[in-house]
Write a structure and sequence with these properties.
about 500 residues; alpha/beta; eight-stranded parallel β-barrel; 16 helices; about 40% helix; binds 4-nitrophenyl beta-D-glucopyranoside
Length: about 500
Amino acid sequence: VNASPKSAKICFRKDFAFGVATAAYQIEGAWNISGKGESIWDRYTHEHPDWVFDHKNADVATDSYHKYKEDVKLIGDLGVSYYRFSISWSRILPTGLSNQINEDGLRYYKDLITELHQKDVQALITMYHWDLPQSLQDLGGWTNPIMAEYFVDYARVLFRHFGDHVRAWVTFNEPLSFCQEGYGGQDAPGRRASGVEDYMCAHTVLRAHGMVYRMYKEEFDRNNQGYIGIALDMPWMEPYTTSSVDKVAAETARQFLFGWFANPIFSKRGGYPPIMRRRIDVISKRQGFFRSRLPTFTKEEVDMIRGSYDFLGLNHYTTNLVKPGDGRITAKPSFYNDMGVKLIVSPEWPKSNSSWLRIVPWGLRKTLNWIRHTYDNPSVVITENGVSFEKGLKDRKRINYIDSYLRSVHAAIYKDNCDVIAYTYWTLMDNFEWMRGFSERFGLYETNYSTPDLKRIPRLSASYFERVARTGCLDDHSSSPRNYDGMV
Ligand code: PNW
C-alpha cells in the first residue's frame, strides 16, 4: 500500500528460473538393485565405514529410486520450473563401458523425466556427480587419459536416450571437489596424491568436458535447442586486509580454485591460468621433477576446450579470507602448497551446521562480479546454493539465508549487469552428505530417517521458496537481513 521505494518489492524478471537440486548417490539408494554396477562411493563407504562421520553409507539414502514419484510431487509443490538431478553412470552402464546397457537404469530416468514433465518441471541433468563406476577406477579413474573417451561414450548413450526430452545438461559437478578431494584428499576414491593425481584428474576431466560439448553440438544439437555447461564451485576469496599482498593472495586463490577449471573453458586465451602454470612449474623444478606436475594441453586441445559452454554453472555457499602462506616449499607435492595461501574465516560470520560454511551473502555478489569481468560476462546458472542447520521444521534461519543470498544475486543482476539466468537451491530434502553422512541437513524438506518410509516433511523454507518461485519476488522486510549487498 504505502510502499516507499525503500520497501519496494524485490522481483526478478519473469524469465528468471528457480529450481532445486539433488545428486544420484546422495538420494537414490538401490545401490545394487536392478542391474546397477558398483561405484567408487559404494566401494569407499563399504570398505571404510569409520571414515564417514556417522559411519553410514548411501545404500538406501532417501530411497528415491523407489520413491521418485513422491519426490516429483514435492518438487511440483514447490512451483519450481526445473529440477537438477544427476544420473548414476553405473546404473546406466554397470561396467562403465558402452557395450552393456542396463535397460532398467534407462527406464528409471525415463520415468523420472516423464513424471517431471507431467508436473511442468524441466530436467537439468548432471552427467557426473562424483560416482564413477568402480571398474573404471580400477583402471586409474580420472588419472587415466582414456577416461575422457569413456565419458564421451557414456554421454552419447545419455543423449541418444534422453536427448529428445532434455534440453539442459551439466557435464561435471565440481571437478575441484572430486579431483582435489578424491585424488588428493579424503573423498572417494581416496587416493591422497595431492599435487600429482589431482592435476591429472583435472586434465582428463577438462578434455572430457570439451569433447562431450563438441560431440553434442555436432551429433545431437543441430537446431541449437540444447544447453551444455559445467558446474564449478567457488567460495568467495576475500583479501584478509586491503594490503596488496593479501589482494594478490586472494586472486591467486581464485585462480587455483576456480580458474583451474574455468580458464581453459571460459577465458579468451584458454589453457590453465598463467599463475598456476608459473607457480607449479617452478615448485616442481625445485622439488627435483624433470617436468612440471601440471600437465600441458596441446594447441588443438586448448582450442577444443576453449568456448565449450552455453552457460557457466556456479555452486556457491560461503566465503573465505585469504592471506599469503609462509612461502615454504614442502618436499611432498601438494595442491595447497602450490597455491601458497592461507584460508581463514571471520569469527563474526554466522555459522551454519557445516564447519566449512559461514553465512556471508555479499560474497555471492562479489563472486558473480568477478566472473563477469574475468570471463566476459558468461550466462550463469547458479547450480547450487544452500545451507545446513539442525533438525527441525521451523527453519527461519534457512529462509534468511536464501533471502539474503537472493538479494545478493538480485543486486548482481540489476545493479551490476551480471548475466545470471537461474537459481538452484541445494537441496530438495535432507540426504547423504558424503563424508559427513546424514549429519548435515540442507533440505527444504526434512527427511525423517527413523520412519521406515523415510517420510519427507516440508519445512517453513519450503513454503517460503514456493512463494519466491511462483511470484519471482522476495518477501518485503521492514528490516531486511544485514549484509546482503554490501560490497564491504
Ligand atoms: C557441494 N565449498 O559441494 C556438492 O556439490 C553437493 O553434493 C553437497 O551435498 C553440497 O556441497 C553440500 O555439502 C561443495 O568449498 C564443495 O564451498 C565445496 C564447497 C561447497 C560445496
